[in-house]
């Protein structure tokens, strides 16, 4: 299978009559209890082109696979059809068996007669048997017209783009550079560190956030393999794994002028972070009363308040009591909370705000012993190692807890103007739903996380977002840092609310995944992409209007008989093989390899072929 | 109406010996463990702790719940946060006792041991002073206690004291009743119910039988010791208030005569438990005795001394030692009277009233609810029809 093969579109008519081997699996009874496999094998022998037709109890077993290999040699088979379970389960298994006998793996077809016949029609054995025969007949038709294909190989650029210079981005960059991979780290603000600059003493270590930021920053600054671009944004991105073309716009470089650079990278890591929820004006009196703050505001207040006094001071007032309200902008309830401007309700838990509140509450109690602290929560979700201690310590320090239900959030009012204390009414479910009223000098809203902004990349790379608007991984457990666009990885809170520990763990995982993608000189892609028959192409360009994938299809000028002509050209890296172009080409000059139109025709013929008159 | 939050309430209770109230995370373990919780309609003891945490002062004063607790300590043993709920119940009872007392003396004595001791000394000195000024002739060749301290005079003093004590105690009981039955709402309860429930009060006053229900920790034995103490105490009151003329005689009867036997019984019934409780408190043997406030010690020591001096009066009298008898008699009364005057209405002794009263009031409440429900039912049936 060399590279030349896959670029050749064979003539629809095959040069010789194919010799197809059909293998029918009993699946230990899963199939044969309903489908009369012996009968199927007998009938399939009658299909034109079929040289061998056999039944086996477990095709996937070693002896089963050996039967295929032996027949390929002895019976000189050049095509194989296995009728068994779903290709999801064993397509690779049987391809492997075929390859071991020196046959091209794309000259193999799998027919699913378990899920689609024996399981779906278990009360109709005759019908199931007939359907199995039809499906196999179609597959024989398709495979008879199959041509040998090879995986597409493209150069793999050993360079990574990391978008976002927060803790996640810095960690990915440092880890990749440590493996010898060059990194370009793009940060839109004027410094690295992300939200660390807005935090104060971090849970669960008590470390100062700026210290952590400085430590991580010095690590990436010191590494010559990391190119750091501040004040910059990715404006253009296209390509595919191993070959992403990126345009970056920003005022970096010695001149300080706004410039644009282009670079090619093999992998993109999304470390674009989160946006803290910003309460609406008037939500819990936010922006209406000077002492209603968010936990973000309160972090900077704690960071700047150096004088340790008996009470906390804010804008010249002595704060005798503070109430923290949890879940502001998180765990919202339909019909209770007002959706955001995009019509979205944040129904998820932001996961960091509970421990954040307790961390802040404790600091207040320790530093300003005469400021009382009240905590209004739905639940206390101090789930991490060392987090629960904040809860216990907060109790010990005299923080009073109240529990409200999500559909009956507390209210904050200030009947008597901005200088009066705030009044909180809460239906407290630790007191059996009792209505309680507190007067406090300050209210701190524990704001959650919302999905960060990264529109350009999301739009251009077509990255999927979840219902919560965060970037969505392929599988939460099996493939937690990969996204459905090959070559793009997720790190940190661009994906979901996480604390720093989790952010860095995710970033480390993304770095390892990225590193693994660079183990080969070339990237291998499936050969199922569009191909143009240049003889047939008349350059109408209709196909281009249908293609949804940027750069997958282009019209190029070539010389033909001394004339300059326009012909369609496919970029196999970007084509996803959807076939939209195939459907519109007036001359049928474009086809998807492995799924050509003549193969479809053969399948239809196979389906309607009257192989068993007795059963109809 | 939204409950007003008094942020200082938990500090106040801490002043009455409450410990680690802030540590309670309202998990409810104590409620599931507590065998008395059912009687509260569920929620006890956490509900009391919650009222304190959330500063619901008036609600706390309106509840009878703390009186349900006999301090087996099971809740404290099982509390995952070491919030010490049992001790909070104890502190709440002290707090409530102080609140029922309108004079403010109870609060003063609970919060300041010095004040309590000072008050005891003052009353003691007053009693001594009375004897110094008004005692009868001291016959020295034989013991004539009734000449030294004529029984009718002592009896008069007893009755005056009893009247004063009863006044304060009943005032406290009235306040307790008023608050816990919902103030004016209590007038809606039929007087018949109040009368029907009266036996409950006396049954519990004399038996404390509820105690046996409480917890896993040797409660049977503790209940018996406590019962012994109560019987000794009530014997003493009966002998002194009602039967003094019969009890305080100069004639020496044989020891098997009832007034002597009863006296000995009362002495043992007072001495044995007090000594036992003091040892237990000292060694912190039982959960209930882990934490001792000054008021707990004063109570035990005074009771012990009363019984001790009482029996000494008897020994000297029978032994024919006139001077010693007169002297120890004065000391005896200078201890017993202040103990009663200070302890009964204003300190720990008051629970002899409040405990059975709380059960009585629970009974009244429940009967009233039952009556209301019965009254509602036919009405709703009519609507349904
Ligand atoms: C109030 C509050 C308190 C918290 N306290 C703690 C704590 O005490 N301990 C703890 O462990 N966690 C805490 N957290 C969580 C912590 O902030 C996050 O876990 C952490 O910041 C996530 O890092 P990140 O790199 O994923 O995202 P971020 O910190 O948000 O960094 C993202 C970076 O990407 C940049 N960026 C975004 N989009 C682009 C773009 N398109 N192009 C270029 N650059 C871009 C941003 O400018 C930013 O620098 C707290 C969170 C909140 C809201
Ligand atoms: S972490 Fe706590 S405050 Fe934040 S959304 Fe979840 S439950 Fe609410
Ligand atoms: S006192 Fe202890 S057991 Fe009872 S609710 Fe509080 S924490 Fe739980």
Q: Could you please describe the fold and organization of this structure?
A:
- The complex is a heterodimer of chains A (616) and B (385).
- In chain A, the strands form eleven sheets. In chain A, strands 8-7-6-12-27 form a five-stranded parallel sheet.
- Chain A has three domains: 151 residues, Rossmann fold, CATH 3.40.50; 186 residues, FAD/NAD(P)-binding domain (3-Layer(bba) Sandwich); 170 residues, 3-Layer(bba) Sandwich (FAD/NAD(P)-binding domain).
- The N terminus of chain A is likely disordered.
- With 616 residues, chain A is of the alpha/beta class.
- Chain A contains 16 helices and 32 strands.
- In chain A, a hairpin with an 8-residue loop joins strand 10 and strand 11.
- The longest helix of chain A is centred in the first third of the chain and has 20 residues.
- Helix content of chain A is 28%, strand content 26%.
- Chain B has 385 residues and is an all-alpha fold.
- Chain B has two domains: 92 residues, Fumarate Reductase Iron-sulfur Protein, Chain B, domain 2, CATH 1.10.1060; 264 residues, no CATH class.
- In chain B, helix 6 runs antiparallel to helix 7, helix 12 packs antiparallel against helix 18 and helix 15 packs antiparallel against helix 16.
- The longest helix of chain B is centred in the C-terminal third of the chain and has 34 residues.
- The chains are: A alpha/beta (616), B mainly alpha (385).
- The complex binds flavin-adenine dinucleotide (FAD) and iron/sulfur cluster (SF4) (2 copies).
- The site of one iron/sulfur cluster has 14 residues of chain A, from strand 17 and helix 10.
Low-confidence stretches of chain A are 1-15
Strand content of chain A: 25-35%
Distance between the termini of chain B: 35 Å
Tally of separate helices of chain A: 16
Please give the radius of gyration of chain B in angstroms. Answer: 23 Å
* Largest beta-sheet characterization of chain B: none
Classify the helix fraction of chain A into a percent range: 25-40%
Domain module tally of chain A: 3
Portion of residues in beta strands of chain B equals under 5%
What is the general shape of chain A?
A: elongated
Mean pLDDT of chain A: 92
CATH topology of the largest domain in chain A: FAD/NAD(P)-binding domain
Query: Largest protein interface?
Result: A-B, 24 and 19 residues
Helix content of chain B: 55-70%
Q: Report how far the terminal alpha carbons of chain A are from each other.
A: 42 Å
Strand order of the largest sheet of chain A: 8-7-6-12-27
């Amino acid at each position: 299978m060399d590279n030349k093969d896959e670029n050749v579109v064979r003539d629809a008519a095959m040069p010789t009559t194919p010799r197809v081997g059909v293998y029918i699996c009993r699946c230990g009874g899963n199939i044969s209890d309903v489908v009369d496999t012996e009968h199927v094998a007998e009938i399939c022998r009658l299909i034109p082109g079929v040289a061998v037709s056999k039944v086996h109890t477990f095709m996937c077993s070693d002896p089963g696979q050996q039967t295929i290999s032996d027949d390929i040699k002895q019976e000189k088979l050049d095509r194989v059809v296995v009728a068994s379970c779903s290709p999801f389960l064993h397509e690779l298994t049987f391809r492997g068996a075929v390859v071991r006998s020196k046959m091209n793996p794309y000259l193999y077809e799998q027919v699913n007669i378990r899920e689609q016949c024996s399981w779906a029609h278990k009360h109709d054995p005759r019908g199931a048997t007939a359907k199995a025969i039809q499906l196999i007949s179609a597959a024989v038709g398709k495979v008879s017209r199959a041509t040998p294909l090879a995986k597409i190989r493209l150069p793999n650029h050993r360079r990574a783009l990391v978008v976002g210079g927060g803790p996640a981005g810095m960690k990915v960059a440092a880890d990749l550079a440590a493996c010898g991979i060059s990194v370009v780290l793009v940060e839109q603000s004027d410094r690295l560190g992300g939200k660390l600059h807005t935090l104060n003493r971090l849970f669960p270590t008590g470390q100062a956030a700026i210290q952590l930021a400085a430590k991580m920053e010095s690590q990436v600054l010191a590494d010559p393999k990391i190119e750091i671009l501040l004040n910059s944004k990715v404006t253009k991105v296209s390509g595919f794994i191993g070959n992403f073309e990126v345009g970056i716009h920003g005022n970096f470089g010695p001149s300080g002028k706004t410039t644009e650079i282009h670079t090619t990278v093999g992998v993109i890591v999304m470390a674009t972070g989160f946006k803290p929820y910003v309460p609406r004006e008037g939500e819990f009196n936010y922006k209406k009363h000077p002492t209603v703050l968010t936990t973000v505001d309160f972090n900077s207040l704690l960071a700047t308040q150096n004088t340790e006094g008996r009470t906390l001071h804010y804008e010249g007032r002595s704060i005798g009591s503070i109430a923290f309200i949890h879940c502001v902008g998180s765990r919202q309830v339909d019909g209770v909370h007002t959706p955001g401007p995009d019509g979205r309700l944040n129904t998820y838990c932001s996961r960091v705000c509970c421990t954040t509140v307790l961390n802040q509450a404790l600091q207040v109690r320790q530093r300003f012993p005469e400021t009382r602290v009240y905590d209004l929560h739905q639940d206390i979700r101090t789930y991490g190692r060392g987090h629960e201690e904040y809860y216990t310590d907060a109790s010990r320090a005299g923080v009073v807890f109240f529990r409200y239900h999500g559909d009956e959030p507390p209210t904050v009012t200030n009947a008597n103007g901005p200088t009066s204390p705030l009044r909180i009414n809460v239906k407290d479910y630790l007191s059996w739903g009792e209505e309680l009223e507190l007067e406090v000098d300050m209210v701190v809203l524990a704001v959650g996380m919302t999905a960060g902004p990264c529109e350009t990349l999301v739009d251009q790379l077509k990255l999927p977002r979840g219902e919560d608007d965060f970037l969505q991984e392929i599988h939460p457990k099996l493939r937690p840092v990969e996204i459905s666009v090959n070559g793009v990885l997720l790190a940190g809170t661009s994906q979901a609310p996480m604390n720093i520990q989790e952010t860095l763990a995710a970033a480390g995982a993304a770095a390892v995944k990225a590193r693994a993608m660079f183990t080969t000189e070339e990237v291998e892609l499936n050969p199922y992409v569009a191909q143009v028959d240049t003889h047939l192409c008349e350059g109408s360009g209709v196909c281009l209007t249908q293609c949804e994938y940027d750069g997958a299809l282009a019209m190029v000028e070539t010389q033909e008989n001394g004339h300059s002509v326009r012909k369609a050209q496919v970029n196999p890296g970007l084509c996803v093989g959807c076939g939209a172009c195939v459907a519109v080409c007036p001359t049928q000059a474009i086809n998807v390899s492995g799924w050509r139109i003549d193969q479809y025709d053969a399948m239809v013929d196979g389906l309607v072929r009257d192989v068993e008159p007795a059963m109809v | 109406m939204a409950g007003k939050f008094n942020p200082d309430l938990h500090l106040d209770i801490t002043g009455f010996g409450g410990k680690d109230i802030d540590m309670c995370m309202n998990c409810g373990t104590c409620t599931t463990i507590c065998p008395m919780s059912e009687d509260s309609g569920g929620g006890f003891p956490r509900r009391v702790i919650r009222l304190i945490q959330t500063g619901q002062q008036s609600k706390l004063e309106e509840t009878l719940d703390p009186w349900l607790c006999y301090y087996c300590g099971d809740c404290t043993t099982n509390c995952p946060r070491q919030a010490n709920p049992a001790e909070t119940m104890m502190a709440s009872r002290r707090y409530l006792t102080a609140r029922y007392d309108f004079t403010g003396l109870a609060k003063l004595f609970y919060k300041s041991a010095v004040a309590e001791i000072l008050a005891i000394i003052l009353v003691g000195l007053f009693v001594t002073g009375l004897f110094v000024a008004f005692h009868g002739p001291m016959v020295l060749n034989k013991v004539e206690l009734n000449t030294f301290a004529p029984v009718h005079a002592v009896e008069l003093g007893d009755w005056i004291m009893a009247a004063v004590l009863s006044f304060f105690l009943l005032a406290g009981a009235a306040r307790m009743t008023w608050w816990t039955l919902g103030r004016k709402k209590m007038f809606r309860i039929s007087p018949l119910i109040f009368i029907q429930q009266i036996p409950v009060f006396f049954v519990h006053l004399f038996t404390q039988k509820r105690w046996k229900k409480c917890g896993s920790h040797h409660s049977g034995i503790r209940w018996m010791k406590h019962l012994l103490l109560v019987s000794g105490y009530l014997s003493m009151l009966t002998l002194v208030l009602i039967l003094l003329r019969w009890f305080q005689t100069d004639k020496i009867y044989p020891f098997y005569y009832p007034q002597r036997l009863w006296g000995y019984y009362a002495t043992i019934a007072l001495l044995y438990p007090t000594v036992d409780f003091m040892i237990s408190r000292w060694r912190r043997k039982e959960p209930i005795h882990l934490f001792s406030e000054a008021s707990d010690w004063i109570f035990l020591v005074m009771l012990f001394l009363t019984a001790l001096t009482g029996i000494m009066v008897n020994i000297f009298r029978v032994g024919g030692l006139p001077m010693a008898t007169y002297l120890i008699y004065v000391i005896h009364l200078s201890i017993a009277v202040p103990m009663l005057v200070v302890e009964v209405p204003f300190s720990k002794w008051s629970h002899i009233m409040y405990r059975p009263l709380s059960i009585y009031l629970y009974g009244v409440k429940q009967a009233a609810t039952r009556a209301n429900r019965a009254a509602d039912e036919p009405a709703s049936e009519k609507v349904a029809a």
